[in-house]
Amino acid sequence: MKKEEVDLFVHKVGERIFELRKAQNMTQLDLAIKSDMDESQVQRLETARSAPTLKTLYKILKGLGIEFRHFFDSDKLNHF
Question: Is residue 8 within 8 Å of 76, Cβ to Cβ?
């Protein structure tokens, strides 16, 4: 797999986090508090400056109140 493909996937994951957070009218700080992490970490994930570990993604999904499968049930992420 090429680095560009991985970078694109990380970018799409960040977009998905942003999309789901906004759909719930949450700020980055709201999500950070609910996910037990720093606001700056949420910002880095949404802007693809950082790739989430599975543990971090789990915390984000718990903070959003959604299931893992729902996160990946998106056209944005299903083209890989």
Answer: no
